Amino acid sequence: MSNTQIASIQTVESLVIPERLDGRHGTNRGDTAHSQLSASNDLDAVRAWLANYTDTKTTFDNYRKEAERLLLWAVVQLGKPLSSLTHEDLLLFKVFLANPQPENRWVSASGGKYPRGNARWRPFNGPLSPASQRQSLIILNGMFTWMVDASYLRGNPMALLRQRGKHTAPRVTRYLSMSLWDEVKAFVGQLPQDTAVQQAYAARCRWLTTLFYLQGMRLSEVAAGKMGDFSRRLGADGREQWWLDILGKGDRERIVPASPELIAELARYRKANGLPPLPARTDDTPLVIPFRGKSRCMSRSAVHDAIKSVFGHAADWLRARGPEFTDRADELDRASAHWLRHTSGSHQADGGVDLRTVRDNLGHVSLNTTSLYLHEEEDKRHRETVKRHRMNWETPPAAEPGPAKHDP
């Protein structure tokens, strides 16, 4: 299979593998008489495994990507079918993930993302980070385990790999401190609004940062959300309450309080886009309105780019204020939409919001995850330690000058 053939691959669904490499005679094939799959080759077995995840697009896309990479590597690099891979082969694959070579075959030009039909498309955009390497091996291990359970494979060669334990970080670190968050708000607040284009950009920047911060939403949740997901009802005290329905990770639904401040910002954003101040339940306007085609939701990558643009321009704005702002600007350059979710959770937790409330607002399954957002405890611990735990060396009195001494 040539480089050109790799570049022309559309999806696992359309991939064609020569019969001698398709796995029907793989050395690790299970007992075909007792297989629970109708698949007779590796590609069909992979398709059967992926069929379990078609209800969640993000998961399906990630799993398909990892399966494609391994399939292509096995066939193109080793000249072996997937069902003939050994422990030693997978050790080589681990090294390959960290540095896909030859680069012109496996890595897209300039590390860019191209459609699969584009001649510049490649399976990788560059070497995978350690976290992405771990995630790839976890996904593929699950695929192999499933194939063994289905009796398609005799054994799971991935299970033999030494998996280095990933130590849970004691605290979330990818978040914006309150002072840096204030800088982002200050940048958004001073955006020019002299033209219609500038007004539309400023309105979207303000709404994006407000929505991510106050609701602690994931990128996919913002991208897929609609204005009609807002609803109101009367509380026990007879006062009006607004809520936002969110379909989250793993198709878990949650309902998050929408503060009067958020609803005021929603009305402001809708007015800027020529809409009535408040949405009805049937309103299918996207939560974030594209500059063109206002009836369709923006893609996850488009929302990602939009919030990265806010952080990037805010970083440039900080640098323009002087060299003393360089470090803070560099931190903003690294920030992403997920940083805003962490920022939301951190500021809620440190601000005294009950951890169970933060857990439910962010859609966490466990309080252990939510507790990673507590940073105030560490700040207090640092202050107390510095203040009360000291050496207190006595400073010796300055020596008085005397006659010079000479060695005997």
Brief digest:
This protein is mostly helical. 47% of the residues lie in helices and 5% in strands.
- Largest beta-sheet characterization: 3 strands, antiparallel
Shape: globular
What is the CATH-assigned architecture of the largest domain? Orthogonal Bundle
The helix content, as a percent range, equals 40-55%
Termini gap:
86 Å
Tally of individual domains:
2
Q: Please identify the structural class as seen in this structure.
A: mainly alpha
Rg, please? 28 Å
Q: If strands are numbered along the chain, what order do they take across the biggest sheet?
A: 1-2-3
Our count of helices gives: 16
Q: H/E element string?
A: HHHHHHHHHEEEHHHHHHH
Rounded average pLDDT: 80
Domain Core-binding (CB): 44-148
Keywords: Cell cycle, Cell division, Chromosome partition, Cytoplasm, DNA integration, DNA recombination, DNA-binding
Region (Disordered): 376-408
Pfam families: Phage_integrase (PF00589)
Question: Overview of this structure, please?
Answer:
It is found in: Cytoplasm. Residues 171-388 form the Tyr recombinase domain. Residues 376-408 are annotated as: Disordered. Residues 44-148 form the Core-binding (CB) domain. One of its GO terms (biological process) is DNA recombination. The protein is mostly helical and 408 residues long. The protein folds into 2 domains: 3-160, DNA polymerase, domain 1; 178-384, Intergrase catalytic core (hpI Integrase, Chain A, Orthogonal Bundle), CATH 1.10.443. 47% of the residues lie in helices and 5% in strands. The chain contains 16 helices and 3 strands. The chain has a 3-stranded antiparallel β-sheet. Helix 3 (57-78) packs across helix 6 (130-149), helix 8 (196-215) packs antiparallel against helix 10 and helix 11 packs antiparallel against helix 12 (326-334). The model is unreliable at 1-11, 367-378 and 404-408 (pLDDT under 50).
